[in-house]
Every structure is written in structure tokens, then in C-alpha cells.
Amino acid sequence: MNQGQELFYNFFIERVKDDKKEEAKSLLKDSFAKQAAGTFDVAYLQEIMSKFLAIVKPEAVEEVKEAMDHFASSL
Questions:
Q1: pTM to 2 decimals?
Q2: Cβ 47 vs Cβ 34: under 8 Å
Q3: Domain coverage including residue 46
Q4: Closest by Cα among 64, 46, 47 to 55
Q5: What does the pLDDT read at residue 73?
Q6: What counts of helices (H) and strands (E) characterise the chain?
Q7: In this predicted model, what pLDDT tens digit does every residue of 2-55 receive, in sequence order?
Q8: How many domains does the chain have?
Q9: pLDDT, tens only, 64-75
Q10: Ordered DSSP codes for the chain
Q11: Which among 26, 25, 32 has a CA at the least distance from the CA of 1?
């Protein structure tokens, strides 16, 4: 995990519903593996964004969405 991934990991895990932490870790692991393989793109991000947002605490949805949109703009 690189520094940027670690920052997002910590940011995201803090905002995930308590009973969804393991699911979050799995989603992040898969996403980081795709980044490492060079197969993480905007289409994949759009595909998984709903999965990420579904497990986030309601009060953090907009904040996470903004962070993911910011990341998408760099792809």
C-alpha cells in the first residue's frame, strides 16, 4: 500500500458503518490491487462507487463522494 492508498484507507475506514468494516477492507484491497495492476480506471470507479457509498455512515456520504470524485479527476 502506497502513502496515498494508506491515507484513503484510514479516511474511508473511519467513515464506514461499524458493522461494514470487513466489507470495506475487502473493497479497498480489491481496488488497491487494481491500481497496482494498472486496471483501475474511471469505469471501474463508477462501477464500485455505489458499493463504497452504501457502507459509509450516512453523515459521511457527501465527504466520501467528494474525495472519490477528486480522485476520479486524476485518472
A1: 0.87
A2: no
A3: 3-72
A4: 64
A5: 83
A6: 4, 0
A7: 998 999 999 999 999 999 999 999 999 999 999 999 999 989 998 999 999 999
A8: 1
A9: 999 988 888 887
A10: --HHHHHHHHHHHHHB-GGGHHHHHHHHHHHHHHHHHT---HHHHHHHHHHHHHTB-GGGHHHHHHHHHHHHTT-
A11: 32
